[in-house]
Amino acid sequence: MAHQRAILRIHFHHGGNEDLYHQLLTVLDGISPRWQAQPPTAADHDVTGALKYFDRHPRDLGLLIALRTAALYGVQTTIGGGNSILIAAMAADATPPGRITIVDPTPDAIAAFLNPRPVHALPGIGPATATLLTRHGLHTIGALADTPLLTLQRLLGKATGREIADRARGHDPRPVTPGSAPASRSARHDFPYDELDPLQHRRALLALAEQLGADLRATRDVAGTLTLDVRYADRSHTTRTRSLPEATNHSAALTHAAFRIYDQLGLQRARVRSITLRASALRPAAAAHHQLLLDASDDKARRLEKAADTARARFGPDAVFPASLAPSP
């Protein structure tokens, strides 16, 4: 008899070291080659075929991955598992660092795991959508699952309503697509406490975009997409990815794109723990085309950026930075 799907979501606590992250992914090959990178810290791992080969429960395979990762690289992992990417990801988010949570693939076990959780814990529901749902009395995923589809579609739209209804019942047919980690660069800001001030969120985003832009220019790369990941005080998170109008390493363009993604999340009252900004779909800058603008300010900004990069290369990364990032007197 064929095994039900068994998916693990693995979070590597590698301190943001991108080179180490790529090495950690090779550990997964020793269990099953069916893994998909989720930069900058995670991976989805389909271990369905490995269950029979190792004659082990998914929890045992997760423990084996954690053991090998710790023994070979000294890196701690947090692992969630279930019969879909959705359940595995949510289980990992609900798991204390260094531990493993596996949700059994039975309907009762899935419902017991999902139903008590707040609506914002369901992937795809950001703060604005969560506010809309709670305003209509839908506070938990179980309440969502019990709501008629037509009602959700009236609230959220036809396609989104159906997708949220399926996810609330644990339905997620997405496959784990094997492949190497995509070329990307990321930067992360951890707040010293749960930060509610949108001005501080935007200040952190500006610093991250400046860092990514400088890193990309140093390696002579440009990015085609930008991903914003916001993690909240309750350890849930929201991730949004946008394609850039043109591939770029211009800090101002990255900042503008990051702010637009942030504004669409509606985080005015969110308690934010950390913000990660990731540039992906990288390619050599020499192969990219910059759209010329009849705008002297754009040309001036790029000349200033080049001069700032030269100063940083000579005097260190903190030699030049935007005035709005200067420490308060």
Automatic annotation (TrEMBL):
Residue stretches of biased makeup (Basic and acidic residues): 163-174
Keywords: DNA damage
The keyword DNA damage is assigned to this record: yes
SUPFAM superfamilies: DNA/RNA polymerases (SSF56672), Lesion bypass DNA polymerase (Y-family), little finger domain (SSF100879)
Family of this protein: Belongs to the DNA polymerase type-Y family.
InterPro entries: DNA/RNA_pol_sf, DNA_pol_Y-fam_lit_finger_sf, DNA_pol_Y-fam_little_finger, IMS_HHH_1, SulA_CellDiv_inhibitor, UmuC
UniProt-annotated stretches for the region Disordered: 163-190
PROSITE patterns: UMUC (PS50173)
DNA damage listed as a keyword: yes
Protein name as it appears in the record: UmuC domain-containing protein
Organism from which the protein derives: Streptomyces longisporus
Residue ranges occupied by any UmuC domain in the UniProt entry: 59-126
A Pfam family reported for this protein in Swiss-Prot or TrEMBL: IMS_C
PANTHER family: BLR3025 PROTEIN, BLR3025 PROTEIN-RELATED
